[in-house]
Design goal:
It contains twelve helices and 17 strands. It has 395 residues and is α+β, with helices and mostly antiparallel strands. It has a nine-stranded mixed sheet with strand order 5-4-6-7-1-8-13-12-11, with helices on both faces. Bound molecules: 3-hydroxy-3-methylglutaryl-coenzyme A (HMG).
Length: 395
């Protein structure tokens, strides 16, 4: 069987963040509830000229610059914060990146799970025709109502991955465990700017789905929990991953104690803590966080990845880090990008928050030039969304 998986991976987030000190003061909530209770210190907030398309194009640019783009046969765009009900987000990015007209383009949705559906579909496409590669981009803006319990778990970002045969970073094994059920834990009707959700139930459902998916994976593969070196979870906020990991470990009969289990998760939560929830991209931010912050070299180590999308679908799958993977990751660049974001004050946050409403005014408008990224959303003309490169920001 053809070996398939992640040959290149690149992340991107907004140029701006809100610090939890600011939110805790305005919401009269203890700072430690944010930092310790849910495990978030900062959240990336998109400027009016940033959205899922600009985040995606910025994440994918370094990948496309490094590969033979004529070989990209498919672009799969995973998101739950789409900007159009008909036209796929992939088509906008296809133009911005100058991909060949022969490239298939499509958008996928199932809450935060769609990115993993895209990765699995990409592996299958590559196994069928290894001469072509697949570009998977997962990009989202997590946008909650002001003063709601979800407000502190907002965030935004994108991860782009090139899926190929004989991948240089992570080989993905074909077996996985899935768990789906029709639930109302988190959803967003077409007429609503914001998701509707039952926070407590969503956490219970996340853990239940995680256990169900693990059961199928472990039985199919004959895989014991303690045979896995590292775990990556979908992280709506960092303590969610930790709660699920501890509960799963006990159920799966792990011999590790709580401290060992917490240490097993500590490298994956760095980026979530300072970026927030990126919905479909969150699991892959956790993977980037592990690649960039692991205390040991990861060559030949086994990682198990758990994807969760409300509504709900979950999947556990595994991958093996490849010899020499460190040459192909972008640790310094990622850390610099996250560190160099600009802090916004509360008034600016309110303006940015309003601009991110998906159902805004229907007339044409232009946006101020604010992003540090290589692409920006300029506004709409005749109901068409306009995206352009920002030549001043290209590095
Ligand atoms: P809340 O009511 O604001 O918070 O909701 P809380 O009162 O439950 O407190 C949260 C934790 O902080 C608790 O810890 C408190 O004890 C602790 P726990 O009991 O859970 O261990 N705490 C403190 N800790 C230290 N110092 C303090 C302090 N005060 C309290 N001073 C909730 C929190 C997560 C429910 C809310 O933010 C929410 O509803 N978020 C949105 C939904 C969500 O993220 N669900 C997660 C699972 S579903 C999912 O992951 C899918 C999703 O990504 C979307 C998709 O798939 O499309 C959301």
């Amino acid at each position: 069987m053809t070996s398939t998986g992640i040959d290149d991976i690149s992340l991107y987030t907004s140029s701006f963040y809100l610090d939890m000190h600011t939110l805790s003061e305005k919401r009269k909530t203890e700072y430690s509830k944010y930092t310790e209770g849910i495990g978030i210190e900062r959240i990336s907030i998109p400027a009016p000229d940033e959205d899922i398309i600009t985040l995606a194009a910025n994440a994918a640019l370094p990948v496309v610059e490094r590969c033979d783009k004529t070989k990209i046969g498919t672009l799969l765009f995973a998101t739950e914060s789409g900007v159009d009900q008909s036209k796929s987000a992939a088509v906008f990015v296809h133009r911005l990146l100058g991909l060949p007209s022969t490239c298939r383009t499509v958008e996928l949705k199932q809450a935060c799970y769609s990115s993993t559906a895209a990765v699995q579909a990409a592996c299958a496409l590559v196994a069928r025709n290894p001469k072509k590669t697949v570009l998977v981009i997962t990009s989202d803006v997590a946008h909650y109502p002001l003063e709601s319990p979800g407000e502190a778990t907002q965030g935004c970002g994108a991860v782009a991955m090139l899926i190929t045969e004989n991948p240089r970073i992570l080989e993905i094994q074909p077996e996985s465990g899935c768990c789906s059920a029709d639930t109302w834990d988190f959803w967003r009707p077409n007429y609503s700017n914001y998701p509707l959700y039952d926070g407590k139930f969503s956490m219970i459902n996340y853990v239940k789905t995680c256990k169900g998916a693990w059961k199928e994976l472990s039985e199919t593969r004959g895989l014991a929990f303690d045979q896995v070196d590292w775990f990556c979870y979908h992280l709506p906020f960092s303590t969610m991953g930790l709660k699920a990991h501890l509960k799963l470990a006990r159920e799966a009969g792990s011999q590790k104690n709580s401290v060992e289990l917490e240490n097993q998760l500590s490298p994956i939560i760095h980026y979530c803590k300072v970026i927030g929830n990126c919905y479909s991209a969150s699991l892959y931010f956790a993977l980037c966080s592990l690649l960039d912050n692991a205390p040991e070299r990861l060559e030949n180590k086994l990682v198990a990845l758990f994807a969760y999308g409300s509504g709900c679908s979950g999947e556990f799958y595994t991958g093996t880090f490849q010899p020499g993977y460190k040459k192909y990751i972008r640790t310094d660049k990622n850390k610099k990008l996250i560190k160099n974001r600009k802090e916004i004050d509360f008034e600016t946050y309110l303006k940015f928050h309003k601009a991110a409403d998906p159902i805004g005014e229907s007339g044409d408008f232009t946006t101020p030039e604010l992003t540090d990224g290589a692409f920006r959303f300029c506004g709409t003309k005749d109901h068409c969304r306009i995206y352009e490169p920002c030549s001043a920001n290209v590095q």
